[in-house]
Amino acid sequence: QVQLVESGGGLVQAGGSLRLSCAASGNIFSNNNMGWYRQASGKQRDVVGTITSGGVTNYADSVKGRFTISRDNAKNTVYLQMNSLKPEDTAVYYCNLRQPSYIGSTSWYNYWGQGTQVTVSS
After folding, report:
1. φ, ψ at 106 (rounded to 5°)
2. C-alpha R_g of the chain
3. Mean pLDDT (whole number) for 15-21
4. Strand partners, 92
5. How far is CA 27 from the centre of its chain?
6. What pairs with residue 81 in β-bridges?
7. Which neighbouring-strand residues pair with 51?
8. Which residues contact 34 (CB under 8 A, 6 or more apart)?
9. So what's the pLDDT on residue 79?
10. pLDDT tens for each residue of 65-119
11. C-alpha distances in Å from residue 97, one per residue of 5, 28, 57, 61
12. 4 exposure class (CB count in 10 Å sphere: 0-12, 13-18, 19+)
């Protein structure tokens, strides 16, 4: 099992910055992807960005140039630096870790954190 604990959410004014952290613990394989998703009230959960264990990143178009994902593999921690925040970034942000169900498996399993609220006021 894998546990994910997020921190760093809160209330910020438009144009401000926040940094989210997510620490993973448990049975973590070296080959995994981590990332951030968000879910605004009444909407579906969407990807914000992901990062592989090798450091390759992908971002949603809506956050490119404003958000940066990074990770510390030694600490099994992923970060989301959010700059130039907009009211439309308001959502619950979820940390995700995706890895093989077991070593050598081609089937991957998703783990989720409990979510942290980010509210951007105009």
Report:
1. -95, -5
2. 14
3. 98
4. 39, 117
5. 19
6. 19, 68
7. 34, 57
8. 22, 24, 50, 51, 71, 78, 95, 96, 97, 98
9. 98
10. 999 999 999 999 999 999 999 999 999 999 999 999 888 888 999 999 999 999 9
11. 11, 9, 14, 21
12. buried
Cα 112 from Cα 38, distance rounded (Å): 12
Q: Are 50 and 108 in contact (CB under 8 A)?
A: no
Q: For residue 105, what pLDDT is reported? A: 87
Q: What is the pLDDT of residue 102?
A: 86
Q: 3-state SS of the chain? A: CEEEEEECCEEEECCCCEEEEEEEEECCCCCCEEEEEEECCCCCCEEEEEEECCCCEEECCCCCCCEEEEEECCCCEEEEEECCCCHHHCEEEEEEEEEECCCCCCCEEEEECCCEEEEEEC
Each residue's pLDDT tens digit, 46-63: 999 999 999 999 999 999
Taking the C-alpha atoms of residue 104 and residue 96, their distance in angstroms, rounded to an integer, is 20
